[in-house]
Design a protein that fits this description.
Layout: H1 2-41, E1 46-50, E2 58-63, E3 68-72, E4 81-82, E5 90-97, E6 103-110, H2 111-114, E7 116-119, E8 124-127, E9 133-135, E10 147-150, E11 153-156, E12 159-166, E13 170-175, E14 178-184
Parallel strand pairs: 3-6, 4-6
Antiparallel strand pairs: 1-2, 1-5, 2-3, 5-6, 7-8, 7-14, 8-9, 10-11, 11-12, 12-13, 13-14
Protein name: Lipocalin-like protein
Organism: Hoylesella shahii DSM 15611 = JCM 12083
């Protein structure tokens, strides 16, 4: 009887282990397919240089592929343009096609203004043109080493930030942990 009971126990145990492993496998597959879906969506940001025909309500963007696109935008809405627009500056533009069939910019981030040296109370870093970040604080435990703009957000390593404001001497970033203020370092 004891042998029969231990055999049943062993079969149930093996079955439970098999089910648990299969559940983890399905969970991992679900996570992998979710991250694959996120990657397949791609970057909705258009990159290029601000063209000479940029005016009060129209932005001319010469894309990295060499195409010239026109975007309408609301110049009174300070949230749309971050870092100003000047012919020749590198830009990241997020937008959509409006009801009139025009490209409408919802966010314009001036990458030329964004690059450079920034500091806060506990961080000092420089955003380089090649996508690297140079840290000015040697003791920092997890310094940022790379940056890029993806879907209109600033990625510093794996940290994702919204750029709330960008000026000649100030940068305001926000994520789930709060709002971070930086000033231009000379």
């Amino acid at each position: 009887m004891n042998r029969k009971l231990s055999t049943i126990f062993m079969v149930v145990f093996v079955a439970l282990v098999f089910v648990a492993c299969d559940g983890d496998k399905k969970k991992n597959n679900k996570q992998q397919s979710l991250s694959t879906m996120e990657e397949s969506k791609g970057d909705s940001t258009m990159y290029g240089v601000c063209g000479d025909n940029t005016g009060m309500h129209v932005l001319e963007l010469i894309t990295v592929q060499g195409d010239t696109l026109s975007y309408v935008f609301d110049v009174e809405d300070g949230a749309t343009v971050k870092g100003g627009i000047l012919a020749g500056d590198r830009l990241a533009v997020v937008g959509y096609k409006n009801a009139d069939g025009e490209n409408e910019a919802t966010e314009v981030l001036n990458l030329t203004t964004l690059m450079g040296k920034w500091r806060s109370i506990d961080k000092q870093f420089e955003l380089m043109e090649d996508g690297t970040v140079l840290s000015g604080v040697k003791e920092e435990s997890q310094p940022w080493t790379a940056w890029k703009v993806y879907n209109g957000k600033l990625l510093l390593n794996k940290d994702t930030f919204s750029v709330n404001a960008l000026g000649a001497d100030s940068l305001y970033l926000e994520n789930a942990h709060g709002i971070f203020t930086f000033t231009r370092q000379k």
